[in-house]
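Case study 2.
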Amino acid sequence: MSDDLRNDPDMVQLLTPEGERVAHPDYSFAGDDEMIAGFLRDMVLSRRIDAEATALQRQGQLGLWAAMTGQEGAQVGSARAAKAHDYVVPSYRELAVAWCRDLDPVAITAVFRGVDLGSWAGNDGNFHPYTMVVGSQSLHAVGYAMGITADGATNTGNPDTDEAVLAYFGDGATSQGDVNEALLFSASYQAPVVFICQNNQWAISVPTTRQTRIPIARRADGFGIPGIRVDGNDVLAMHAVTSWALDRARNGGGPALIEAYTYRMGAHTTSDDPTKYRTSDESDQWRAKDPIDRVRTYLLGTGAIDQAWLDALETEADEVAADLRARTLALPDPTLEESFDLVYAEKTQHLIDQQADYVAYAESFGEDD
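Prediction:
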């Protein structure tokens, strides 16, 4: 990356790669060390799930996997800033966000195993299904935000009920028309939506420098909304800035764009080979900024955790991974009968009749036929 993109004095940082807390004139983290330890647990467990899912794909048990290792700080910090009644719209890499929204990770491996289409849509975590079409989810998020505004579910002055939307996409998606249209519509209608752009430096094999000459956060200026660039590997900074932006959105302040400056440590997906376009020196430099390492260092330094705590967390991670593997491998294959239930939100009479005809036809054959 060129210096003009890397060395940004306006980038918000509250925890350095060395694990030292630093102050910022505009944003501060309001939580305590116990809360930060919770963030560390979220990041460690989601990374372990990510590694297990990658292994499952390599063994032919998943058709594909989009890993998020390296981006845990951006995801956990922002997701934990959202309230339970806020709505979260991911792309296809937000495993740690899903974890923070209490979504069973097997629901995600089921999608990549090809046995489910994302049927968690109605879960209590207010977590939208993964979106595979790059950037299109940004428009869905704005539409939802405009809807809750029309329903009077935001800007009422009641923090226990006022809602906002949190939408995720990557740096590559900012080159898509959908994202720019979403920014335009959200600004025009002052929709209560916060956009999180995880700038992980590479849109598959295309570097950010080929997509923009300025930090992505500065694009917000053209739409008349705030744009904040954050150290995406700093979970505290991500939590502080996202909390501010969501509170602002819920109170009628309109949308904001947060650029989480982070790094994808692995491949774009399991069908990609990043060694073809990235240098090992670049990867090594970013591994020194690991979001997990800096939090671990900080908490050990304050005495909030010790090695026994970390050992217990490692054991928990192994148990979570083993459970994920066992339940993923046990997932049943879908039946043709079920496909009739997945066409519309409310099944039409025509589909009901078609399903009945198919069931009758299938039952006309004996079990051994």
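The domain at 3-333 is CATH 3.40.50.970 (Rossmann fold).
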